[in-house]
Amino acid sequence: MELPPVYDANDASFERNADALPAYSSSIGRAIPTSALNLTESSNGAASKEFTYDLKSKSSLASLVLYGDHLLSKQLPTFLEGSKVEGLVKLNLESGESINAVVISIRGQVVSGSTIYTFLDCSQTLWPQPTSNGQKSNDKLQGEQEWPFSIHIPKEVALTLGTKDAPRVEVFRLPHTFLERHARASIQYEVVLRLARGFMKTDHRIITPFGYIPISRPEAPSRLRQLAYQENTPVPGPISDPEGWYTLTPIQIHGKLFNRQSIDATCTLSLASPLSYTRGSIIPLHLVIQSHNIQALETLSAPQAIICRLRRNIRYRPEENKASDPYLRRDEVDHSELATWWAYNEGPPPEKETFKRTMGGEILLPSDLKPTTNMGRFRLEYSIVFFPFDANGFQGEINSSDPMSEHPVEIATAFPPGPLPRTYTPNDQAVHSSSLMVGSSLQTSGFF
Q1: CB 400 within 8 A of CB 441
Q2: Are strands 405-412 and 276-278 parallel, antiparallel or unpaired?
Q3: How far is CA 123 from the centre of its chain?
Q4: How many C-beta atoms surround the C-beta of residue 432 within 10 A?
Q5: Closest by alpha carbon to 85, among 167, 177, 153, 180?
Q6: Are 123 and 107 in contact (CB under 8 A)?
Q7: What DSSP string describes 277-344?
Q8: Helix (H) or strand (E) holding 224
Q9: What gap in Å lies between CA 88 and CA 148, rounded to an integer?
Q10: What is d(CA 21, CA 56) in angstroms, rounded to the nearest whole number?
Q11: What is the overall mean pLDDT for the chain?
Q12: Which segments in the chain show pLDDT lower than 50?
């Protein structure tokens, strides 16, 4: 099982190139919380965590034992991409109980209300085993029995989509478990032990959920950004490191200060490139505000006035050839906490003497954030949204709930090659609240 590597800061192959970096401010970064490293630290040879599930009938006792990843498994046995669902089936039969077959299965399903769409179904017959000539044994089960099992979890599945008249086959990567109380659709995995009891008899079953984590990894950041992470120096901005940033189209701002002074400004937002970020780390941001009105510059560059968030969009579409409730076709939208911002200086002259203000920013990603997902009719997508400024005395021409800019990004589960990212948010810069909260003005399901 291939696992995300942990970068060795002492690796001599990553040479320092001090001449490649211009002078910056004296702020330095901090290591990200260790809770984000769980996926990186998981290893194939590590000890497993045991989960046992029992089923007792009048004349038998069946037990299903699962061995989950010891670092990833909390309340549920959890498995990483490339691993196997391994366990043990125990059966203690008393006289009079007839078992025709013992079958273990793993399933993956998109569940929405009473609608279930199965995208993964792998089974293994534990008993009876075929004989050398391919025929099944006629032996009867008696007393205590045990069968170890191991079912490989495929990385991809092929699904048939489209209508009956125009079907199409597409290959999808197996998605991350997704279970949230208020979501209209979820992605669930389960292990099913079935004890087949023959004609006119109800089968015995043990059904238990398990977690699945795919390994998705961003591409390596720019050389200069990697060097900054390794040397714990400030990250260069878009001018010094154009390969390290994706700059969005500049936004023209029009409005009034204190309801009497008309102002115009230009804002240019840049996102760290590549546009894929590991959960448990951060999304680096860079913002340039330009205006000939110094008072407008000071007002708009106040950290608490800049409203930028990560938006999550959950999209579920029932079968294309069936009528469905329009409610199910509505996207569910929610947002992260606000980005934090601070003054960012990339060298002389001091910006206080110019018509420009430069801000550094970060969005903190929770370590349990679900990654970008595409599983046929179920999609979980992310974007960076930049809302109008929320500054005292400033009234913009755009509705405060309408984003000025939005750009898609991806959330991954593993770190990219190279040094681990660092956070540069100043210690005294706390996540601030905003009037942009859940309500009639902001169409959102909440915050994550």
Answers
A1: yes
A2: parallel
A3: 28
A4: 15
A5: 153
A6: no
A7: EETTSEEEEEEEEE-S-HHHHHHHTSGGG-EEEEEEEEEE---TTS---GGGGSPEEEE-PPPEEEE-
A8: helix 223-231
A9: 4
A10: 68
A11: 83
A12: 1-26, 41, 43, 321, 323, 430-444
* CA nearest neighbour of 229 among 5, 13, 14, 4: 14
Query: What local confidence, expressed as pLDDT, does residue 351 receive?
Result: 61
Please give the helix or strand (H or E) that residue 225 lies within, else none: helix 223-231
What's residue 201's pLDDT?
81
Task: Compute CA distances 224 → 19, 232, 233, 281, 348, whole Å.
Answer: 11, 12, 10, 19, 20
d(CA 409, CA 352): 33
Secondary structure element (H or E) that encloses residue 87, with its range: strand 84-93
Q: What residue spans in the chain does CATH classification 2.60.40.640 cover? A: 41-213, 216-423
CA atoms within 13 A on the CB side of 318: 16
**Token pair of 266 as six digits:** 């230009």
The tokens of 203 are what? Answer: 């089968």
CATH classification code of 216-423: 2.60.40.640
The class that CATH gives domain 41-213 is mainly beta
pLDDT per residue as tens digits for the range 155-195? 999 998 888 888 999 999 999 999 998 898 999 999 999 99
